[in-house]
Write a structure and sequence with these properties.
Strand content of chain B: under 5%
Shape of chain B: globular
Largest sheet of chain B: none
Shape of chain A: elongated
Distance between the termini of chain A: 90 Å
CATH architecture of the largest domain in chain B: Orthogonal Bundle
Bound molecules: zinc ion
Number of helices of chain B: 8
Largest sheet of chain A: 9 strands, antiparallel
Helix content of chain B: 55-70%
Radius of gyration of chain A: 28 Å
Oligomer: heterodimer
């Protein structure tokens, strides 16, 4: 019989089953078998589990992003990349004005499921001295905007802090949301990073005094490369004490 | 403390939300890809947010959780960013390209491990049996892998997409045709020509199989 078609031999090199007639010929023809073997060298080089298409995603630890930011010069703290998927169990929740208020130690599990609707503010009472400590700030829509959510300060076991922002906002075609911490006088501000609808975690600079920047602000930024606040804010929250 | 001021924030206004925007939260994948290619730093962060899990998942599957996998993920994004001129948004989605970069990094790490293992073995055998022939620096399979990955980068579409579905997702040519909408005969001839091209590359640049 005739030799197999070149296309069939390529499929054989990929270990696809061939029609019975081709398979029978391949078994008995040294020339076709050699052709398959020569094509198979490339297949065998890369058709290994090592390189297989992505399966289940695994979130890398936070320091991977820090290293990428350091190597590329992209500011790590101003990018909005979640540092960790979840605060570790036993994370502490600290009030905004940490220096002036008692540290509130709350097991993270207590807060799981404590969903706060737009416009609401969750207040936890420190029963020891009766002082109100706000650990979650609602982000209320400004004027006619649809954006809302909440922000929560988290302190990890190693002392690092993060702001976890849960935002519900329409997707933007021509811009992006950015989260800021702002002075009450709205003069100085610290950019925390890019946000989108959903929950994200922003690293807080170690020397940042949250008492001086208590306003959590969500702005809409155009894609103009200007790192300054656009002046267009869509949602805000502030310590109410 | 780095802070930024903008006086007109004092008159924080209202943004017109414009027409309702439905769909996935955040920028679309293709918008991130465009911004990435254009060098917008925020796009690197967005790409990382969206696809680092996929990339790291591959790295962890290759090397297990730990420093090697983390290095692969880190190098993938750093190389992708510094080499973004090599990414063309019109030739495929950004996550597929990132996965391609990741394959190179996995292959590089594998080759490095392989070389270290060989050197350790060579050193051990020298201790036992005195001077012995120097072991080849790189295993043929390792070298072949790098050459094939390199050649894949040079393929246009749809050839690259087709062969990657065959290599990395283990799809048959019929499944590839169904997945891509490309006619069966076209898929088969692309597969044939791509395998020939890879064979030529290995024959020209690769180590001889039977040295
Ligand atoms: Zn034959």
């Amino acid at each position: 019989m005739q030799h197999c078609m070149p296309e069939q031999l390529a499929l054989a090199a990929l270990r696809e089953p061939l029609p019975a007639e081709d398979a029978a010929h391949l078994d008995s023809c040294g020339a076709c078998a050699a052709e398959v073997a020569s094509l198979q060298r490339a297949v065998d080089a890369v058709a290994v589990p090592l390189l297989a298409a992505p399966g289940a995603p695994v979130e890398p630890p936070a320091h991977v992003w820090d290293a990428i930011a350091a190597a590329t010069g992209v500011p790590a703290a101003a990018t909005g990349v979640p540092a960790a998927a979840d605060p570790p169990a036993g994370a502490e929740i600290v009030p905004f004005r940490a220096r002036r208020r008692p540290l509130l130690l709350v097991a993270a599990s207590v807060l799981v499921g404590a969903v706060v609707g737009a416009g609401a503010v969750a207040v936890l009472r420190d029963s020891d001295d009766g002082v109100d400590a706000v650990q979650t700030v609602a982000l209320d829509p400004l004027d006619e905007n649809d954006a809302s959510g909440r922000a929560e300060v988290v302190v990890r076991d190693d002392g690092s802090r993060a702001l976890e922002v849960q935002l519900t906002a329409p997707a933007l075609d021509d811009g992006y949301y950015e989260v800021w911490l702002i002075e009450p006088s709205i003069t100085d501000m610290v950019p925390l990073g890019i946000a989108r609808s959903g929950t994200q975690t922003f690293e807080l600079p170690a020397d940042l005094d949250l008492g001086e920047f208590p306003v959590v602000d969500v702005s809409v930024e155009p894609l103009d490369g200007d790192p300054l606040h656009s002046g267009v804010s869509v949602a805000r929250g502030q310590l109410e004490s | 403390m780095l802070t930024r001021s903008r006086p007109r924030l004092g008159s924080v206004g209202v943004v017109d939300p414009g027409p309702a925007r439905n769909g996935a939260p955040g920028p679309r994948d293709d918008e991130i890809a465009q911004r990435f290619a254009a060098g917008d730093e925020s796009a690197l962060a967005l790409a990382y947010q969206r696809w680092a899990g996929q990339v790291h998942g591959m790295a962890v599957r290759a090397f297990g959780p730990g420093p090697d996998a983390e290095d692969v993920t880190q190098q993938t994004f750093v190389s992708a960013w510094t080499g973004r001129a090599g990414y063309r948004p019109d030739k495929g989605p950004l996550p597929a390209w990132l996965v391609g970069v990741c394959r190179h990094k996995i292959s590089d790490t594998w080759a490095r491990r392989d070389k270290q293992r060989r050197e350790a073995e060579a050193a051990a055998s020298q201790l036992q049996a005195g001077p012995s022939p120097v072991t080849a620096g790189v295993d043929t399979a390792v070298a072949d892998r790098m050459l094939v990955l390199d050649e894949l980068d040079l393929l246009g579409q749809p050839q690259r997409g087709i062969i990657e579905l065959a290599f990395f997702e283990d799809l048959t040519h019929a499944q590839i045709a169904a997945r891509t909408g490309i006619p069966l005969g076209t898929v088969k001839s692309h597969i044939r020509r791509t395998l020939e091209r890879l064979r030529s590359r290995l024959e020209v640049d690769g180590a001889a199989l039977h040295a």
